[in-house]
Amino acid sequence: MNRYRNIYIHLFFFDKLLIGYLGKMQEKGKVVIIMNPVSGNRRSKIRRSRLLDLMTQRGISYACFETKYKGHAMELVQGLKEESASIFLIGMGGDGTNNELVNGIMQLPPEHRENLAYCLFPSGTGNDWARSFDIPIDPSSWLDMWQEQFAKKHDLGLVRYYADGQEAQRYFINIAGMAYDAYLVGKLEKGFMSKSNKLVYLGILLRCLMAYRLHPVQVESDSYVFQSKCYTINVGINRFAGGGMEVVPDADAFDGLLSITAAKDLKKYQVVYELRRFYNGTYTQIPKVEAFDAKAVKVSCTDADRILEVEADGEYLGVGPCTFQSIPAAFNVIMPKKNN
Questions:
Q1: Is 244 or 205 the better-scoring residue by pLDDT?
Q2: pLDDT at residue 249, rounded to an integer
Q3: What is this structure's pTM?
Q4: Out of 19, 25, 74, 293, which could bridge 104 as a Cys pair, Cβ 3.0 to 4.6 Å?
């Protein structure tokens, strides 16, 4: 660790001390990095280390904090509540870390969010949110992009659901999924199998597909209502999920709307046969797949004996009924200029 001439603090300190230190670094205008040290694989860790080296070489001062449990990134962001100049927050991790950081940012007062610019260095397994904007995973290319400081106001989604019998809510920056998607995420979080690479993940997908029973649901927006058995339902701010599946191909992170896709009553053999369409952007051309936009949507299970599960950005949340709403222009995100 001595090779980093910047400030690098391991989390053997108490959390309150860390959060207080984050506030002090903000007052000095330092860049703040929140890193998930176990995200991704060995190559991901090498890339994170290389990026820190490059930042040192380019004279960029920073304070770097490692998360040590689920939800910790969200807590650490609260250290940015102290009033100060503009803050550049860098997340290092995958889509789960990204989701935690976004939820932490949304807990900050509005004036603090306005003075904060966020960027993720994608170093997880799927990196689906970064894929929508072609954010580089190469450390040098990523740092070049970040130093250009091109930022846009990014929309978010907000889902309300139930966890342990209590109402709860969660922001999402990428895609929320119900029915089969949430069923699969729940299996992964319970250690059903490890999604160590895309091929393994595809195997998990097919294996779980054989055991899954379609949910009968009702989907309601201000302009569209339907009831059907559904294989999967996705509510998107961006396009990709599951390590590169373009399940919400028409999503736009800057239009102030949710983009919804629902696969109605697909047979299992149809899912397998049409699998290529999940990856090539033609998913909505599959028969029985509905697609529409809305500012808000409610999804509920019409079978009282079954529960409808929900996940957001690859993180299992709980059960429905679920309501979703768009949060337009929620906060500043640094990204490649070609997304202008």
A1: 244
A2: 95
A3: 0.88
A4: 74
